[in-house]
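Bug #77: duplicate submission created two jobs. Keeping one. Sequence:
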Amino acid sequence: MAGTLHRSRRRPGWPDDGGMNLPRTQRSRLIGCFALGVSIGGFFDGILLHQILQWHHLLSGLASRAADLRLQVMADGIFHLAMYVLLLVGLGLLWRQRRDPEMSEFTVGTAMAWTLMGFGAWHVLDAVLSHWLLGLHRVKMDSPNPLFWDLLWFAVFGIGPLLLGWRFPKGPLRSRPTVLIFGLSAVAIGAAVASLLPAARGSPQAVLFGENNSASAIVQAIAAANGSVVSTDASGTLWVVRFESPVLAYQLYRSGAIMVGGAPAAGCLTYSVPAVAPPA
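Kept job's structure:
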């Protein structure tokens, strides 16, 4: 009777032991889905809060460095780079097992559940660690009541997806392993690509030029792209620029730019070099 009761309470597709004693291949699939969920959550934050709404940068809560746009862009760049690494880890764990015979038992529900929990786990971690313990930023920095937005974000995008993933039906819907993995990959890569879209109007973008470009030529090229210089580094190759039309920023590639704006590591390239005022 006890065994029957135990089996009746077991939710299909959910490991009774939390996954600790699962075979390595099954555990890798769950970790892969969870990692994809975390990376999608990070890209969601970066795209919506950093680029579109511009409510904060990663380090906006550091009062002594809040006005240092170079540091803010650098931190955002490192953050996105970390999400790309996590994305690749998740994809690697899934794709290397796509021909495993046991993949036929990997249901769509299980994949969605662990991806949702990864998405929610990121927002819970971000709220507890970045918002409240370390004070790196708040969801809406200029709000008179930032705790309201923190708690709203925590509940809707953190606890909500975690609970949804926990209760998500794990079976019996199945899909071909390659189709299932391709679908998850498409969503994750789509989020990554979206982070490369032009920044919002007026927000600072990093532009890296080659060493052969003169400062005067760079200033002229930026002006032609309807941009204004915020700062440049001591080497004269890395510039922080505000563009009235972010799309026009990409025409700087014709003027010798190596990397413009949304590229994931653009913010962290050579920002350890002290800033200097832009040339007159």
